[in-house]
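Risk register update: the risk that structure generation would not scale has been downgraded. Supporting records follow, first protein first.
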Amino acid sequence: MDILQPTDSQRVVPSLRDLEEKVWVYRFTHPDGGWILSIATLAGPGSKKMSLGGLRIVPRELTDSPGFDTDREAIRLALGMEEKVFWAKALQVGGPRARREMNRIVGGKCVLQPTADARVGSPRDFALLDWAVECFAEMERESGVLLTTGQDLGHGVMSDGKTTSVGYLASRFHGCMSADTGAPTGEGNYNMLKGMLAAFGIRSQAATVGLIGVGNVGGHICARLQDNGTAVLAVDHNPSRRAKLEESGVRVWDQAGKFAMLREPMDALVVNAASGTLDKETIAACVSNPRLKIVCGSENLAMQDPEGPDKLLTAKKIYCPTVVGGMMGFLTAVEEYLATGDGLRFEVRQMLEASKRLEMIGRQACSLIRSRNYMIDFAEAAEEIGRAGRGTPAV
């Protein structure tokens, strides 16, 4: 195991020098398999804090991209998780145990780079995950940090055709959670969208919503919208998913048709692809769409245009940071972790109920932004709502 101290992490991600956060990275390299596991955390050594962030088995398209680095990816994603933790604290969102223990929770991320023969569903997948579990245990033992992981990219059914990767990990390491975080994430995202639309007086039956990414999370949102009579447009890279969406009455484009979809009249755009959806070209397309009022989602690291939020606000379009819309996933993992530690049964329905608070936050934040003539952004509005909820005077 190699340990990157915060100063080392700053060399990997130079932007850390401008932030207050300190990030440690515990890196493991398999001597024979060529596998790499980087565990990034904002929990200091010996702190006994809970480091929250899923285990990402890196998709092939990322591992094959020039310059990909597991340390860099883990640090970036850990910072995104820390932002979700910040908003959960500020807006008092979460299950009862998470709200009780929120000061012990920090952002983290586990990024595992496999070889082709060890990906989930390939011949050496069990060996890969057995090794990852050994690394988790060593990291906890040496760091004094409580590692907690949940679902993320790259998981599925193992090479035996029946065992799920998440279930296999959960049966072997106490910090690996097996609850489906996709449904609570999607429900939180849907409730946020519902509240934002309500602030504009837009009824579900009269709305048109564009989705970019219709996988586990995006598919949940799509189903909820269709159940309410909302017209749905969608972009997805997966041909079989596109075919099923078309059968259900959704107008669908492949990745190459993204900008054609963005020219369609729509009230809101919801992004749930892998990452980086909101680049400069996509922001420009959103700004140019006269009917579009809302951009939200729960995609990790979605906003690639540093000026994107300001461009949208200037065009009188409200952007809800995806870390706010996506916080229910990590909150599900920590709630399950704490319930298991207390010897209690965890039920996902508790988190679906907890996610309803995001509807109120979305409605209030958008109403406040509109009342201030778009002179404040979503983050500022949400912070003001959070302070009011805690009885803290506005500053």
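Supporting record for the second protein:
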Amino acid sequence: MSGQKDREQRREERVAAEAQAASGDRRTRLLQLSAGGVFLAIIVVVVVIIVASSGGSSGGDASDVAHVQEVEKMLSGIPQENLVLGKSSAPTTLIMYGDLQCPICKEYIEEILPEMIATKVKDGKLKLIYRDFIIISEESIPAGEGALAAGAQGRGWTYIELFYRNQGEERSGYVTEEFIESIGKAAGVPNFKKFNEERTSGKYTKEVEKTTEQANKFGFEGTPSFAVEGPNSKGLELLGTPETQSELEEAVEKAE
């Protein structure tokens, strides 16, 4: 009888041990599944952060023109006439030859020129002139015509700034009628009907071709290219594409 009790006790202990082991295995599997879920969640978060940091968009979205208030604030109070930004009496002139599809031009517009605009242009010491230099594709021609049509209504530089800041990938086909219209509207062109009529009439095609030819004659090989003229320059001095902001600023200061 005593032996039977011993066997039953051992059986009960074995069952309890197996149950405990099974429970441990379940906890281990749950922990593994939980860790896997956390790992997947981390991956999702990282992907979301990467997409967000890259803007989540390649630009060129006609339905979502960004940086409008930023540009308006930067250019507020500065005269605009055609594609000239600044007072006509400013003693020094900086000319930018650019292609509106050019990503390097975009960098200059966003990172280098704002400092000059906030100081020298606002102070009436410098005026900026934009000229089309078509080197990327024919899509840049109607974009440039749009800038000239906006400039005829005193919103040329606003258009240029917004076009660059909403620029899509070059040669991707984003420069559509819809996109140009959306930039014109965001730029606050007063007479939008006139803007559309003039930019599509061929009125400004020769001007785009003329400034492109001029840049080629100067020997410019890429965009943006710059030229400066001021009281202390030897006429119009060709700068090409300065590699740094300080290089461009020094050239302007020497010409002043």
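The two ends are 115 Å apart (CA to CA). On this basis the risk owner (M.S.) recommends closing the item.
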